[in-house]
Structure formats: C-alpha cells, structure tokens
Design a protein that fits this description.
Structural class: alpha/beta
Number of helices: 26
Helix content: 40-55%
C-alpha cells in the first residue's frame, strides 16, 4: 500500500515478494527469490519504473538503472544470447531456461504492482475502494492455515469501510485509505488485554490512577517521542487550527509526566544513543533531556566525595555496549553491567584461554580429487591459500551479505574498473571498435550518470589503450597459439590450456599494477610451459610497465615446480600464512618489515574510518588470521610467513630479466 509514495526501489519490491504469503501466491520458493535477486540486480535495475517515472517526480528523464531497461534486457536475453550488440536499443542479458520460468512468474508479480500503483492514483468513493482492496488481497495472498487469521482481520476492516460507504459517495484520495489501514493495523489491540499478567507491554497511555512498582520506557529517541505530527492533505484541523484542538506532541509530553508519577519504586528509561553504522551520537527525547536537567538542578549528590568528577546523571546513566557478548557484561569490575546469557558467558570464559593459531590445526589428508588439478585450481591456491583450504578441503564458505543496492553508481570500484579495462583491451587486440563502450556500460547500469560517467570511461579507455598499444607491436604478424599441458610434478597431476602464446613468447596483460597474485599466476604458466618442454619466454604488461622472464631450463622448471607442489601438499592439510600481495611487497623490500609491508597487510583509514589491506579485503584471511600481528616478528606465524615468502618469490624471481 506504500507503492504510490516511493520510488520503486529494488529492495522494496523484493521486500514484498520475499514475504512468504506473496511468494506462495506466485508459486516461488525462497531460493527462487534469491536467484531472482541476483539476476535482476545484475541487469542493472536500481530504482524507478522508467524515464517518464523519474520525470514525473521532477528529475531528469534518465532511463538508466530503471526497471524498464533491466527487464527488457532479460526478456531479450531469453530470446538470444548475451551480446555487446544492441537489439532495438536493448542490450540482451542471457537467462537460462530454468531461471526463465521463475522470471516469468516474477514478471506477473511486477505487472500487478505496476497496475495497482496506477489504480491507486485514482480518486474512488469508499465502496469502490472497498472492492479494490478486496481484489488487492485476492491478487497478492493465498488463503491457507497460516494466513487465514490475518486475512480475516483485513476483511473485517474492509467491511467497516463498506458500512460507512452506504452513507458516503464522495470520491477520496488513496492517502485517506492508507492512513485508515496504517492506523488500524498499528494501534488496534488484538492481544488478551491490558494488565492481563505479571508483565504488561503497551503503548503509553494515561496511568496516573494505576500505580506500578516498576515502569520501563524504551525507544525514547528524539525522532520517536514525542510523536511528530505529519499533516495529511485532507487534514482540515491542521489547515485551519482552532483552540482546544487535539495536539499529539502535547499529549505525549503529558503522558510522560503521568508515567513518571505512576512509577512507585523504579523507573527505567532507555534510548539508542549511538548509530550502529558510524557510531554517531543520537539525541534523546526532549522529554528525557528536560528530566535530566531538572534532576541536575533539584537534587544533590549524597555520599559522593567532592574530588570525584562523576555527576549524579552519570551515576544514573548506563552506556551499554553495542553487542550482548561484550566482555563488560561478564566482568565484576562494574555492577551496572550484568548478563544472564549462558552461551555468551561460556564464550567469554573460553576466550580467556590462549589463542591457538588457526594454521596449526592439521586435518586428515583430503580426497584424491585434489591431487589431479587444473591450472586454474593451482592458481586459486596461490592467490588465496586460506580460501582454498576452507572451501575445497574443509567445505566452509563465507557468504557475502546479499544487500540490494537501491542507488546508481556514483563511482566505479576497483574491481569494476579492472573488468571494464580488461574487456576494452581484449576488444582492441581483436581489432574491434571501442567507440560504443560508453553506451554498452551505461546499458549494463555500471557507469555513473551524466558527466562523471563520461569522464570515468574516458580515463579507463586511455589506460586500456596504453596497455594495448604496448602489446600490439609484440603480437603483430605473429601466429597465436594455445598449448595443452599435462604433467606430473611431485605426484600432483596438473593439466590445462595455456593461451596467448605468440611464437616463443607467452604474453599476459593486466589493467592493474603488478601485484603478488598476478606475479605468481603468470609465473606458474611460464614454468608449466617450460616444464612441458616448450622453450618460451614470458612478458607481463601492467599499468606500471612490463617485466620479462627468460626461458627456464627443463630441470630448473621441474625443480621450482617441485618446491611449489610441496607447499601445495602442505596447504591441503592446514592453513598457511601466505598472503600473495603482502608477501610480494615484503620480498621486494629485501624481507624487511617496512611501513608499506605493514599497510599492505592491514591499515586504518582515518578519513573514512575503515580498515583496509589484504587482511580485511579477503574475508578468508580475516577468518583464519585475525589474530596475526605482522609486527610481531618473533611469533611462529611470522616465521612461517617469512619462510614462505622467501621460498616462493625467490624461486619465481630466478629467471627475471
């Protein structure tokens, strides 16, 4: 019922269809909705029906990131494969047959909310609104044992409208109907009644004649109490106020005073004092602020030494930690903090025991499937051994938070910049035009709107062209080939196809600076080629220039691979403190722990108040090595980090030109 007043944000649309009764009505499971979230978010949908919708709310008629563009991409993608060529101004995004079925059901749902949104803009009389809401309930909800009580209650509210409609034929706005249902659903009591047991929960109401031993008031924030008066368009009392009119804010202040008088022994008042996202201070209700000021002026501190700085308000106020498992609740240092949570207490007691490094825990040798691997699998091992060990060996996966973004890109992150640049370089090397790149990435919903998007794609194209222009002279008039390798090293069988070989040179490019993970993966391919008796050199081109490796003799290639496979075998039984980018920086600094090595692993940005570095960018490093202090050079973990960095990069660096 709130659609006529919001912007059709993707998160709000999915908050409706993710409701179990609505899902059941459209024959969608929870997993189906999760699949749809990913598909539709990947299509570039963020908010707004179309360009006309944005124009109607006095914004530029920009159709990028709207539902119309995103859904048209998926519909076109069902009929044809994903392509970088437009079909009737639509860039197709392929959707497979199984997902197409659930996408079709979602389209039925989306068309319905569009229809309802349009109809809600009309002015009907009460009888017509009653019929309309009945149809709305039938369209969105399926009657079953779970929903029967709630739907019958809604029907009873509609019946009340029907009774009134017999005496009223005036056309009214939807906001009137919306206000009626919101009020009834929020405030009508459906429980067992007031003061029905030892503990009563209720909204604030006149209590002066009913004393209580203990009264607790929660949620006393400035933006919640006293209630803000939101004027409706049909509210004549607000448009033409008179003396003795009802005032909600003044009533709330009066109720607060009555509540104070009704508390006979104890009064507990709480409010949210800090923002959980940025820790910004939140203000209490003006009523609570006035109460504390009154206490300061009217009461004196007894049994408090004058030299103590603690005020009476400080004594009465307890600032609680954000989390219930905070150590404050399980310490005897302050009686204000206590907890009855058994599991959290046990966890804190166990936390006092010395932490054992995660990597020391050995497990039973993994299955034979990890002894016969592809080149890609080997690369993923050295890119992040912690992730490989947790996912491939133990079977633990870290699910990233699946949050739908309701806003267009204001800026492009590093990963998106890298992917766009790699794509443009590939297009140039294949002799294809890149003039239409801005339109393609706008259609995908990736670029920021307006001039900022134009500037960003121009910058990316320039960097991509510089790298491509470095590569073109090396590959022009040279035959490109792919080589299949299949060798056994240290009882590990490695196989796969290595591409981008031009005569006797393996040429690999990256649209970012040379990092440790790229250094390792390119060198692995170089070693595998030479170990398969292909005498090739290696050239790596990145944003910071190029590096070259000369051919590796067959015996040396096997020797280096043997050492790497020995590390691979150990890495199948425990977690290793090898962090490719940090280790690479450490090795380049002569294995000296300098500032850039420390910041590569972990740093704190005082401007954005965010943590960074490999430790925080890779959640599996955070999981396995959260306690690792890289500056503690005497620890066992650092000793292994130092040893692995030297072994791996010293061997790979042997044939650098």
């Amino acid at each position: 019922m709130t659609f006529p007043s919001h912007r059709f944000e993707i998160s709000k649309v999915f908050s409706i269809i993710n409701s179990e009764p609505v899902r059941n009505k459209f024959n969608l499971s929870f997993n189906d909705v999760e699949t749809l979230r990913k598909i539709i978010h990947n299509s570039g949908v963020r908010w707004g029906v179309n360009g006309r919708f944005k124009e109607n709310i006095e914004l530029l008629p920009e159709s990028q990131n709207t539902w119309e563009i995103g859904l048209n991409r998926l519909i076109a993608g069902y009929a044809m494969k994903s392509s970088d060529e437009f079909w009737q101004d639509v860039l197709p995004l392929e959707i497979d047959g199984d997902n197409a079925k659930i996408f079709g059901r979602f389209l039925d749902f989306y068309k319905l909310i569009l229809k309802i949104n349009t109809e809600a803009l009309n002015n009907f009389n009460l009888r017509e609104w009653s019929l309309w809401i009945n149809n709305l309930i039938d369209a969105f909800f399926k009657y079953d044992n779970k929903t029967e009580v709630e739907l019958l209650y809604l029907k009873s509210l509609i019946n009340e409208l029907s009774i009134v409609s017999e005496h009223s034929y005036i056309a009214i706005d939807f906001s009137v109907i919306q206000s009626f249902f919101v009020k009834e659903l929020n405030y009508r009591q459906t429980g067992s009644g007031f003061i029905s047991g030892k503990l009563t929960f209720s909204s604030m109401m006149p209590l002066r004649s009913v004393p209580f031993k203990i009264i607790c008031i929660i949620g006393m924030n400035d933006d919640l109490f006293p209630r803000k008066i939101i004027s409706q368009g049909f509210d004549l009392m607000r448009a033409f106020p008179r003396n003795l009119d009802k005032n909600l804010r003044e009533m709330d202040r009066y109720l607060f005073i009555e509540t104070l008088l009704s508390a006979k022994e104890k009064l507990y008042i709480s409010y949210k004092g800090r923002n959980i996202k940025d820790n910004a201070e939140l203000l209490p209700s003006i009523c609570l602020f006035e109460l504390t000021e009154y206490i300061k002026k009217q009461y004196i501190k007894k049994h408090i030494q004058e030299d103590k700085q603690e005020s009476l308000i400080d004594m009465l106020t307890t600032i609680h930690p954000l989390q219930a498992f905070s150590k404050k609740y399980f310490s005897t240092q302050n009686e204000k903090y206590f907890s009855y949570h058994k599991e959290n207490c046990i966890g804190k007691l166990e936390k006092k025991q010395p932490n054992k490094p995660f990597f020391e825990e050995k497990i039973i040798a993994p299955s034979d499937s990890l002894l016969s691997i592809s080149i890609g699998t080997l690369e993923s091992f050295f890119k992040c051994q912690a992730k490989f060990f947790m996912t491939k060996v133990i079977g633990i996966y870290i699910d990233k938070e699946n949050v739908l973004d309701d806003y267009e890109n204001i800026q492009i992150d590093n990963l998106e910049t890298y992917n766009i640049s790699q794509y443009i370089i590939s297009m140039i090397l294949h002799g294809k035009s890149i003039e239409n790149m801005e339109n393609i990435f706008r259609a995908k919903g990736i670029l920021p709107h307006g001039v900022s998007g134009e500037v960003k794609i121009k910058e990316i194209k320039e960097n991509a062209c510089n790298i491509a222009n470095t590569i073109i002279p090396m590959i022009s008039n040279k035959k490109k080939r792919h080589v299949f390798v299949d060798i056994n090293v240290n009882d590990i069988n490695i196989s796969g196809v290595i591409k981008d070989i031009y005569e006797d040179k393996l040429i690999i490019y990256s649209s970012s600076k040379l990092k440790g993970k790229y250094y390792i993966t390119t060198c692995l391919k170089h070693l595998l080629l030479n170990a398969s008796d292909y005498k090739t050199s290696l050239i790596f081109i990145g944003l910071d220039g190029k590096i070259e490796f000369k051919p590796v003799p067959l015996s040396d290639a096997f020797k280096i691979l043997h050492n790497l496979m020995e590390i691979y075998k150990i890495g199948l039984t425990k977690c290793l403190p090898f962090f490719p980018d940090t280790s690479f920086t450490y090795f380049k600094n002569g294995c000296q722990l300098k500032a850039n090595v420390i910041s590569s692993w972990s740093y704190y940005n005082y401007k954005t108040h965010e943590n960074g570095g490999e430790k925080y960018f890779e959640p599996y490093f955070m999981l396995c090595f959260e306690e690792f202090d890289i500056e503690d050079t005497k620890s066992k973990v650092f000793s292994m980090f130092d040893e692995l960095s030297k072994i791996i990069f010293k061997d790979l660096n042997m044939f650098l030109i």
